[in-house]
Amino acid sequence: MSDEKNINWRPPMKAPQVDYSKMLKLNFDQISHPEWMKNSLWSAKPSKNKSKSTSDTSSYEAQKLYSKWKKVMEEEAKVKQHRVKIDPNISVKFFDEITKSAKRLNCNPEDLAAIIYRESHFDPQVKSGSGNYVGLIQMDKVSFDSLEVKNKCTYAEYCKLPREKQLKYAEAYLKFRIDEKGLAGKKLSGGQIYTLIHRPKDINNPSTVRVHQRHVDDAKKVPEKMKKINTKM
Questions:
Q1: What is the mean pLDDT of residues 178-207?
Q2: Which CATH class is domain 60-220?
Q3: Rounded distance between C-alpha atoms, residue 82 and residue 76, angstroms
């Protein structure tokens, strides 16, 4: 090869880079969503910011308790009660709070709901015959004053709280008794929980616990009995 040829030689030019993808690009949006589908029901997309209702966010246990006791409250509201105010508009949120409290107390939510029903029929302002005990689990002022609760209200204010807000004080009382009796971390029966409310000093007495367990079991049967009565009517 001569020097001239060496001087005139040039490396082959690279072929121009053509983006064939652009040539073949299809508007898939137009194919999958033709003009006639725009603004139609088929093109509607679900909103990502759609807020969940209370019933959507509540646990299955809470929903189950709500459906049972809601019917009981509706029926009882039709009958004049001696001292209990029956509110048929009981909320699923209340039973959601009962479920959460029961799990923290290590007991059955169904048992806790039955106990509260037996004590107050879910009326947070109901008073005992003597007037010394008020609320969901019939708490007196001495017991209330001994509780350590964050942002605690006065006893007078407690007596006027709605059931959803009063429940935390019922839980605090039971937690206090559970710790006091060395029952923390143990799975508790309805009879034990009810004994801690009525006769905490007898918590280690099997016969007392059995009596209270029968009361709890009887209360748990109320929704089913109410259902049978309505079916016959």
A1: 97
A2: mainly alpha
A3: 12
Tokens of 211: 């009596």
Q: Which helix (H) or strand (E) holds 45?
A: none
Sequence-distant (6+) residues with CB within 8 A of 59 are 96, 99
Q: For 84-112, how does the pLDDT look when each residue is reduced to its tens digit (9 = 90+)?
A: 778 888 999 999 999 999 999 999 999 99
- Burial (Cβ within 10 Å: 0-12, 13-18, ≥19) of residue 194: buried
The DSSP bridge partners found for residue 139 are: 134
Q: Which residues pair with 127 in a beta bridge?
A: 134
3-state secondary structure (DSSP) of residue 26: coil
pTM: predicted TM-score of the whole model, two decimal places: 0.74
Conformation bin of residue 17: beta by default, left when phi > 0, alpha when psi is -120 to 50: beta
Tokens matching residue 103: 């799990």
- Please check whether residue 153 is in contact with residue 169, taking contact to mean a CB–CB distance below 8 angstroms: no
Tokens of 142: 């001495």
Structure tokens at 214: 């029968």
Query: Could you tell me which of 210, 148, 134, 201 has the C-alpha nearest to residue 176?
Result: 148
CA distance 25 to 44: 26
Cβ–Cβ < 8 Å for 102, 112? yes
Residue 84 corresponds to which amino acid? V
| CB burial string 108-130: b at 16+ within 10 A, e below | bbbbbbbbbbbbbbbbbbbbeee
